[in-house]
């Protein structure tokens, strides 16, 4: 296998690695990294009720600092394959653009880092000048994320592996390669509000207790602003996603009404404090008159933030040198595996341009793959200077 990032990206796209299937993607990486001198470990993690998932950890060098690149080879399903102009798992390059599921999210990013690392090693006699370079690659990011990075990090810690800084290669850029580093992500929390009343005839509301009235009162109270944002984050937001009564009868007041909601929250809240705040608001609005319950779904998506400092400066400088762009430090968007990595070392996210991810005809311009490889190469160079 070659060290050419575009060839590696094409080959990875051809692996049908829809979560939880490995699809040959990790074997392919092992085949590239092993011969280049990396110690490669392949682990399958499992848990009752979930599909077992394969993962990979590769390291070259034994010294500190250990710069780790994190990513995932699994992809979301292609949807209707007939809707694609280029088959989702063909790995075709047409008009200097690589098409296929995972081209952007994030097989392309992995290929670029592998290309950059191999090029750096080749220029330094096959070894890092100092320290170590590692890759932490999971096959369980797009799914439930139970048998992936969480367990991979625990496995690594149990072996005594330590990480100094991490680059997660998710597609962080918005319009143009170099415009955005993700230096944090909001947390995500799901809950259900259940109001109970008393069923009765709609013509005699005084004999019933309509839970829909109570639900509206509580929903209004819960939609009040949570904060005004913080230094690095937009304001937190609670959004109702469903209101459910399920009553097919026109002359019946129902006995129960529920509403589901999601909260995207910033670093002004911990999960515990946020739940307490919502429970307090519900209690105040219910004023002892509305009978309700709040149920929380378990969430492993806590907020994370990497403060601006030498590591973000180093990455930003490398990006500017290669692309001419001054990247913005952003905390927008959904969650990523950075929420797990942040407990082990500072992490930032920088990868391709996210426009087409998860879409039909997901694609990455070859020029972006070349540029991203150059950015990673420059980051590695500066990091071990
Ligand atoms: Zn991704």
Report on the structure:
This protein has helices at 5-13, 25-33, 107-123, 149-158, 211-222, 271-286, 310-323, 338-341, 366-383; strands spanning 39-45, 53-60, 66-72, 93-94, 97-99, 132-138, 165-168, 180-182, 184-185, 187-196, 200-201, 237-244, 252-253, 256-265, 291-296, 304-305, 328-330, 347-349, 363-365. By secondary structure, the chain is an alpha+beta fold. Strands 1-2-6-3-7-18 form a 6-stranded mixed sheet, with helices on both faces. It has a 4-stranded antiparallel sheet with strand order 12-14-10-15. The longest helix has 18 residues, at 366-383. Bound molecules: zinc ion.
Give start-end ranges of low-pLDDT stretches: none
Please state the overall shape, judged from the principal axes of the Cα atoms. Answer: elongated
Query: How many helices?
Result: 9
User: Beta-strand level of the residues, as a percent range?
Assistant: 15-25%
List the ions, cofactors and other small molecules found in this model. zinc ion
What Rg is obtained from the alpha carbons, in whole angstroms? Answer: 24 Å
Order of helices and strands: HHEEEEEHEHEEEEEHEEEHEEHEHEEH
Tally the beta strands. 19
Mean pLDDT: 96
Side-by-side strand order of the widest sheet: 1-2-6-3-7-18
Q: Which oligomeric state applies?
A: single chain
Question: Ends: how far apart?
Answer: 29 Å
The largest sheet, given as strand count, sense and whether it forms a barrel, is: 6 strands, mixed
Percent range of helical residues = 25-40%
What would you call the structural class?
Answer: alpha+beta
